[in-house]
Amino acid sequence: MVKLGRFIFxxxxxxxxxxxxxxxxxxxxxxxxxxxxxxxxxxxxxRLLKELELDPIYGLNTHVHAxxxxxxxxxxxxxxxxxxxxxxxxxxxxxxxxxxxxxxxFGEEELEIRSTPGHTNGCVxxxxxxxxxxxxxxxxxxxxxxxxxxxxxxxxxxxxxxxKQIFSLPDDYDLFVGHNYVGVLQTSVxxxxxxxxxxxxxxxxxxxxxxxxxxxxxxxxxxxxPANLEDGDPAFIKH
Length: 239
Ligand SMILES: N[C@@H](CCC(=O)N[C@@H](CSS)C(=O)NCC(=O)O)C(=O)O
Ligand SMILES: [Fe+2]
Description:
By secondary structure, the protein is α/β, with parallel strands linked by helices. Helix 1 packs across helix 2 and helix 3 packs across helix 5. The chain is globular, with a radius of gyration of 17 Å. The N and C termini lie far apart (41 Å). Keywords: Acetylation, Dioxygenase, Iron, Metal-binding, Mitochondrion, Oxidoreductase, Transit peptide.
């Protein structure tokens, strides 16, 4: 058995959509979770989980992604006992629908679920208080945040979510995001409270910024959203 010693944490990138996937594992029991896997890199992630002799009991989606197909369904074909997780506010299917305040346990580790709507209704942030880490999905990005112009997006909801549920965490919590388009891997509560060019503004200014981003839709959006509402089941992937 590979010696792992302490808390297991791996950051993985899917380059087509610049999505960040995370593996967290309990060294004592080898139980683990994978956050935001992508279908295109599911085999790579499965290989790493097997190499590290980790037992993925949950595949955690931060939300119904619009830019890539989730890898949770594909990983469940390899790890049949893994449960796909999504917010009960997402409108999507999963093995376990979670609510704000719920705790996900894996071995001697746990993650608190914090509801952070605004990018989508069903966005959640997963918080490890033991390791001072939070996984924000697209609610908060490094020096940015998720767009609010589709999938029930609402800038005022997002502003309140970030301030109430993420910026209320202690300053020294590290933040791990859903995407970054220039290769920055992580940030922290203190850093974003001081430096985020959108969230440091007033709510009115934030809404004005978000309503004028004028971004093109993600390239995979028409394929990704219907598939992700069904946990990435290939029967729902349009070709
Ligand atoms: N060009 C990318 C999509 C880029 C994009 O829209 N990203 C989303 C997160 S994925 S839902 C976003 O919220 N961006 C915010 C921003 O300020 O960039 C593609 O085609 O995949
Ligand atoms: Fe998103």
